[in-house]
Amino acid sequence: MLQVKNLTVGYGKTEVVHNISFHVERGEIVTVLGANGAGKSTILNTVVALHKAKSGSISFDGKDITNDRPDQLVRKGIRIVPEGRQIFPQHSVMENILLGAHIVKDQKKINAQMQSIFARFPRLEERKDQLGGTLSGGEQQMLAIARALMTEPSFLILDEPSLGLAPIIVTEVFDLLKQINDSGVTVLLVEQMANSALKISDRAYVIETGNIVLEGTGEEIRTNPDVAKAYLGNVQKM
Amino acid sequence: MQELIFALANGSMYALMALAIGIIYSTTRIINFAHGSVIMIGAMTSYWFISTVQMNYILAILSAIVINILLSILIYKTAVEKLGDLTNNSSWIVTLFGASIIIDNIARMIFGTEPKAFPFLFNGMDIRMFGANIMVHEILMIVIAISIGIAYQFVIQKTSFGRAVRAVSYKPDTARIMGIRSNVVVLTCFAISGGVAAIAGALIAPLTFASYTMTYAVGIKAFAAALIGGLGNTKGAFIGGIALGLLEGFVGLMIPGGLKDAVIFLIMIFVIIVLPGGILGAKIFNKGNIAAEKI
């Protein structure tokens, strides 16, 4: 579904991502694993067109999207839940959700989608008039996901959804991602602390300083001793 | 009474001009230093449409609005987007000043150096009110300014466009992944600002004469009003504008013309020393008072 070929990205003269290729197939959950500064976020931001690629190509559903604008990608069904959630703190929860549906002009469609979002996240409905900045971290993550779901994307990208969340909330978030995936949405995840992410992943890539060093199924990566040592803490005892 | 209405009318135009500065500032954190020139072009083109093309007053102002919108888009496309990258540096400070100088000199070539007497709306008809003769034009200035202020506030707070403007002002990149075209939103804000400046320029011109020097004679007061009230704050723009208008009227009664502006700007400097963020505090949407502390 998503095909990234020989992607090189840099900031000014510094190259951050070197000649990376990976792919995500329809219906999969794919995790990209890597330490801080490995270039994970850069890859995602390039996929959603916030960065320009230096070279290489990105295609989605067989069509080249390398030079698309972010809003065109949203229309094509690619949404990202950015790192740190990026809720608009001075917009109400309701307004945040409506911003997610900015490209939808049909008011009926927005209302219907809003109802299904509220059915899934009753907490957000309770707090719809509160300012986004007053929500807790977990609620903000739910809001960030809800906001992205407003355009019913077929491809959802999440940049470190577990960042700064309590373990119990992290479990909740990953359960939710599994549900979203089961409903037919392809998911691309980037994680640093990756045990829970790998458990729900079909496949995974490991990135180090801008290069892919390992790829395999979620289970293969999770049980790989090197990966376990580097990213998963004491997973082997589990 | 006449003096008071005159001061209020002038003040409401300063408020509109300050609002136009604020429209751009609160979305992009750019202070449009070419704003004075945009106001001047609004006044001069509407004068030209009235005197040379013999257009009706309202139609002339509408045409001036269109020209000003195009001018503002041009300023954004050249001085901001191409020459001064608004995310990476502050080149726009110089490029916008440059744009202002270029526009002023082009205006001087086209319209000449002679100040022009700008006609009043309804031929300067006045009505008797509060025991004084008050010009309809002045009343309309106040009414139009307040209506535009309310309309702007409504658009920003209640509409989908306003929501997008506030989102872009908070983080342009996050707005973009919502599917908002951030640079189109910014461009639209420049256009709106230009349109508002045209109205303010054309309405104040009968009281000040229209000439290419309006950039400094009038434009600088727009910045003063914006700073006194609080940059980017709609209510602040009105408080700053009206305060400046009243101050001007009051000082003008006691001090001869040449010194008047000097005294006004001294008072402005004093206000900024005491209240660095302006009376209501500088406001970037979503950033609250943080911006005021930074100044």
Shape of chain B: globular
What's the helical proportion of residues of chain A? 25-40%
What is the beta-strand fraction of chain A? 25-35%
Q: Spell the H/E element sequence of chain A.
A: EEEHEEHEHHHHEHEHEEHH
Reading off the top of the CATH hierarchy, the class of chain A is best stated as Alpha Beta
Q: Based on CA inertia axes, which overall geometry of chain A fits?
A: globular
Spatial strand order of the main sheet of chain B: 1-2
- As for the CATH topology of chain A, it is Rossmann fold
| Oligomeric description of these chains | heterodimer
Give unreliable regions of chain A as ranges: none
The counted number of beta strands of chain A is 10
Terminal Cα separation of chain A, in Å?
34 Å
Provide the CATH architecture of chain A: 3-Layer(aba) Sandwich
Query: Mean pLDDT across all residues of chain B, rounded?
Result: 85
Please supply descriptive tags for the structure shown above.
heterodimer; A: 238 residues; alpha/beta; Rossmann fold; 4-stranded antiparallel beta sheet; 10 strands; 26% strand; globular; B: 295 residues; mainly alpha; two-stranded antiparallel ribbon; 13 helices; disordered C terminus
Structure notes:
The complex is a heterodimer of chains A (238) and B (295). Chain A has helices at residues 40-47, 70-76, 93-100, 107-120, 122-126, 137-149, 167-182, 195-200, 218-223, 225-231, and strands spanning 2-11, 14-24, 29-34, 55-60, 63-64, 78-81, 155-159, 186-191, 203-208, 211-217. With 238 residues, chain A is α/β, with parallel strands linked by helices. Chain A has a single domain (2-91, 152-237), classed as P-loop containing nucleotide triphosphate hydrolases (Rossmann fold, 3-Layer(aba) Sandwich). In chain A, strand 1 (2-11) and strand 2 (14-24) form a beta hairpin. Chain A is globular and about 45 Å long. Chain A starts with a strand and ends in a 7-residue tail after the last helix. In chain B, strands 1-2 form a two-stranded antiparallel sheet. Chain B has helices spanning 2-28, 35-51, 57-82, 92-111, 136-158, 160-170, 172-177, 182-208, 214-217, 219-229, 234-254, 257-274, 290-294, and strands spanning 126-129, 132-135. Chain B has one domain (2-213). Residues 286-295 of chain B have low confidence and may be disordered. Chain B is globular and about 60 Å long. By secondary structure, chain B is mainly alpha-helical. The interface between A and B is medium-sized, with 23 and 19 residues. Chain A: This is ABC transporter ATP-binding protein. Chain A: One of its GO terms (molecular function) is ATP binding. Chain A: It holds the Pfam family BCA_ABC_TP_C.
